[in-house]
Design a protein that fits this description.
Rossmann fold, binds uridine-5'-diphosphate-xylopyranose, 2 domains, 45% helix, 14% strand
């Protein structure tokens, strides 16, 4: 099938690449000229396992091309995916200006029937809004349908999640559009939910908000565990065996970050408000997440004393492992707060230092993990990259001024750290002092 994807961010790029890999003729379009030039040369704008190889292969096979010209992309396709950014406004609502602009371009370009699909997380009724914009601006009497097909991919496993989704959600009232979508997804084995546009839009919001709530719930339990002298790891394990609860997304830590959960939670609170519902539970999810970062700074202060003029080593900056994404990473608040208190920060992240440089000033970015430990009065773990699990603890201890580790991701076993002679502080577990 002929597919176009407007917007080549995480969602757009993964969508375009996977549909090309499945044998479709795909054009990805983006207004960012530099990004498109690089993509055509096989240089990826983001770090994502497996993406580069797949893009290169499909460009070579002439199934995938990138352009700056949205109109070319729109004309090419039977199915047009809108994957442009939906950033938050200052008040937390979703800013739909990019989606609206694409809808106008579609209206002025299409000459034959098209299925127009929105994949980004957008407020309920966005599908109807897109439809109205196109109807109001279309020149000839051209038929089209709007479909909501929310994306659930995670950064760091974007390709795998797109190739092997746990479900496919199609929201449309049109038989013709749903048949085309079914054909497009026919090679992917996953349960398919076909529903109306509004329900599809709500599935995405409800899913992300539920997951964020699960994280805030376990972080609240971690706080209680610390007060009660219990171990949140064991509590989560015990809860997770219950299939109704499930064991994933129960890792206590320094709170969720990234470009989805923080903004989607805020947006859903606003959406609910616009319908007259005060979503108190989700407000608590957000507030627990904010508290968690502050609580971690307090933990550091308790372990280290006044951070003024003290050298602190930091392992991990990205909002989670396997990504270079720094957007809404908890590390930003934590490190800025420590700097405000006078701490000197040496940090290392395998992928995110480039992006971190534009968000964090006066940080000494190190070439390798052991460098951050040199003369450090404490070592912070802010992202649980696998390579940190393999580090030589004896070597770390020998390099540090004081062997103190404050682990925001519960990456290490407290017993082992005690044996190795560290003072070790983690989340929702007893301190090793
Ligand atoms: C998320 C959703 O998972 C995905 O379905 C949606 O399409 C986009 O948003 P992503 O932002 O890539 O994906 O990250 P995810 O892996 O879900 O993690 C989000 C945040 O939660 C990270 O900061 C992570 O560190 C944190 N987290 C996750 C926890 O603190 N504890 C957990 O148990 C799980």
């Amino acid at each position: 099938m002929k597919i176009s994807v407007i917007g080549t961010g995480y969602v757009g790029l993964a969508t375009a690449t996977v549909f090309a890999e499945l044998g479709n003729e795909v054009i990805g379009a983006d207004i960012d000229k530099e990004k498109i030039e690089k993509l055509n040369k096989g240089i990826m704008p983001i770090y994502e396992p497996g993406l580069k190889e797949l893009v290169e292969r499909n460009i070579k096979k002439k199934r995938l091309a990138f352009t700056n010209d949205n109109k070319t992309a729109i004309e090419h396709a039977d199915i047009i995916f809108i994957c442009v950014g939906t950033p938050p406004k200052d008040n937390g609502e979703t800013d739909l200006k990019y989606v609206e602009k694409v809808a106008l371009e579609i209206a002025s370009t299409i000459k034959s029937y098209k299925v127009i699909v929105h994949k980004s997380t957008v407020p309920v009724e966005t599908g109807e809004k897109v439809k109205k914009i196109i109807e109001a601006n279309i020149k000839k009497n051209v038929d089209f349908d709007v479909v909501s097909n929310p994306e659930f991919l995670r950064e760091g496993s974007a390709i795998k999640d797109t190739m092997e989704p746990e479900r496919i959600v199609i929201g449309t009232d049109s038989k013709r559009a749903s048949e085309m979508m079914k054909k497009l997804y026919s090679q992917i084995k996953a349960p398919m939910i076909i529903t109306d546009v509004r329900s599809a839009e709500l599935i995405k919001h409800a899913s992300n908000s539920f997951l964020a709530t699960k994280i805030s719930f376990i972080n609240a339990i971690a706080r209680i565990c610390e007060l009660a002298g219990a171990d949140v790891g064991k509590v989560a394990e015990g809860m997770g065996y219950d299939k109704r609860i499930g064991s994933s997304f129960l890792n206590a830590g320094i709170g969720y970050g990234g470009f989805c959960f923080p903004k989607d939670v805020q947006a859903f609170i606003k959406i609910a408000e616009s319908y007259g519902y005060d979503f108190q539970m989700l407000k608590a999810t957000h507030s627990i997440n904010e508290q968690q970062k502050k609580f971690f700074v307090e933990k550091i202060k308790k372990a280290l004393g006044n951070p003024n003029n003290k050298k602190i080593g930091v392992l991990g900056l990205a909002f989670k492992p396997n990504t270079d994404d720094m957007r809404f990473a908890p590390s930003v608040y934590i490190l800025q707060e420590l700097q405000r208190l006078g701490a000197i920060i040496n940090a290392y992240d395998p992928e995110a230092m480039g992006k971190a440089k534009s968000l964090l000033n006066s940080i000494n970015f190190c070439k390798e993990p052991y460098d951050v430990c040199i003369n450090a009065e404490a070592l912070l773990i802010l992202t649980e990259w696998n390579e940190f699990k393999e580090l030589d603890l004896e070597k770390i201890k020998s390099l540090m001024k004081h062997p103190i580790i404050i682990d925001g991701r519960n990456m290490y076993d407290p017993k082992l750290l005690r044996e190795k002679g560290f003072r070790y502080f983690s989340i929702g577990r007893k301190d090793v002092v």
